[in-house]
Amino acid sequence: MAARLGSFRHSFAEKREREKLFPSKGRYSELDGFPNIDEKGENSGFCLVRRKISESWKKLREIAVQAWEMGRADHRTIVFSAKMGLALMLISLLIFLKEPVKDLGTHSVWAILTVVVVFEFSIGATLSKGFNRGLGTLSAVGLALSMAELSQLAGEWEEAVIVVSIFITGSVMTYAKLYPTMKPYEYGFRVFLITYCFIMVSGYKTREFIHTAVTRFLLIALGASVSLVVNICIYPIWAGEDLHNLVAKNFVGVATSLEGCVDGYLKCVAYVRVPSKILTYQASDDPMYSGYRAAVQSTSQEDALVGFATWEPPHGPYKMLRYPWRNYVKVSGSLRHCAFTVMALHGCVLSEIQAPAEKIQVFRSELQRVGNAGAKVLRELGNKVKNMEKLGSVDILCEVHEAAEELQNKVDQKSYLLVHAESWEIGNRSKELEHPQDFLSLDDEEKELTKCKFHSKTALDLRSLPMSMSWDVGKSDIGANFTPPEPVPEEGESKTYENASSLSLATFTSLLIEFVARLQNLVDAFKELSEIANFKDPVEQSPPAEADGIWTRLIRHLKFRQKDGQLLG
């Protein structure tokens, strides 16, 4: 069945036809299914080898450029790599000394493995891994020595006892680490299982359970100690500081996205084709998209940083013994709640159904003011978080609330622009209910609704008001600015697209007001963080004093001399 002119199906069918006629670059031709390239001579052996070598060299250059850019973007990656090499070098030197244990070189692999596994990017992650590895090893050593003594008492059943104990221990420990509250200690459970099985099996072959257990524990302690000393003493990298900077950065990103969405909507920015990365919610270079996406996607990163930051000792500006890192996650959650609204605003910009430009311009100044005021609040809160400073005595939300109220008043005054007036039921239902028996057939709820419509018709009959197509925003009378909409020339044409386009402006406006309403929760979360973390008090800036002219200073001098004369007299 053919789509009706003006309907959704008709619009999307036209779009598909345009894409077939003008395919994007790099795709195959719609006519013959082959690339538009001349493949003559490309399949010869020499050409294939030369092309493979060229492609390999190009990939190596790209990898080298990416590695260089990664080091330039964050120089800490280079420092961390050098620290890892230094730790491995030190542990190798200690193993070569063969002191204080003579047979240290035999099991030296455990010290090297400990450095590789425990040495993490941040101090908190290193302490967490070191604690889990040490606790898992120590507890496994104790249990393994106990089970070794019991297995020796079993006599001929010694092997069976060892196998059964490994099965029971592996099952219980694996089930325990799946418990939600044990998630931070998952690595400790893994180390426990490895150590227990290693001691039981190797100790059974060598009959040196105690020597195997003590050697493994000493080597693990040695590797963990070297890792901690190198990581803490040489250019320490703190997970808490990364969390602090991440939350502050997300404020700026959401503010940039908010301004971009409002500006793009007011400029009626229309995408010829929405980028596939945005449609599939992947990383993109679009600042309007990447700002709020970074805030929404940072949940897992924040949870990991909080888990590591709790292990770190007081340092730098975070001098409290139990610093409230969890409150940073709470602030970020409130910011993420606002970012969801910005995501919806970006969806309005990307929508294929847009309001007419002349309608958007009616609310231009109010929408622009709300967007700028909301972005200003986010940036100011981000600076407060970054500088660890409390809010001042002035209400930070005063300006954005006034802007939202002004926008709401404008919506109340010009609400007729946010709907398709021809589709209103006012006036239509009343014609159907001309006979009293029709009104009596309605139930109570429909009667009340019909009464409201009758009253609304007497106050506002849109079909009797002239409507201006210029959507004048002046203060003249509403009746003088209205002219009836032009009738549709073709009977039966779908009105769905026209109705939806009228409502798209209402959607964008309501989302922007909703964003302002969510800012209060964000401010409350920041105030709680600033109080618990003992942020410094803000510096109240006094208004600059006016410079006194020469006549002002002369008059003040004369008055001072006159007062001195009166006192002497």
TrEMBL record:
Protein topology in the membrane: Multi-pass membrane protein
InterPro entries: ALMT
Location of the protein in the cell: Membrane
GO annotations of cellular component type: membrane
UniProt entry tagged with the keyword Ribonucleoprotein: no
Predominant subcellular localization, coarse grouping: membrane
Membrane-spanning segments: 78-97, 109-128, 160-180, 187-205, 217-238
Keyword annotations: Ion channel, Ion transport, Membrane, Transmembrane, Transmembrane helix, Transport
Protein's GO biological process: malate transport; monoatomic ion transmembrane transport
Signal peptide: none
Keyword Hydrolase: no
Family: Belongs to the aromatic acid exporter (TC 2.A.85) family.
UniProt protein name: Aluminum activated malate transporter family protein
Lineage per the UniProt record: Eukaryota, Viridiplantae, Streptophyta, Embryophyta, Tracheophyta
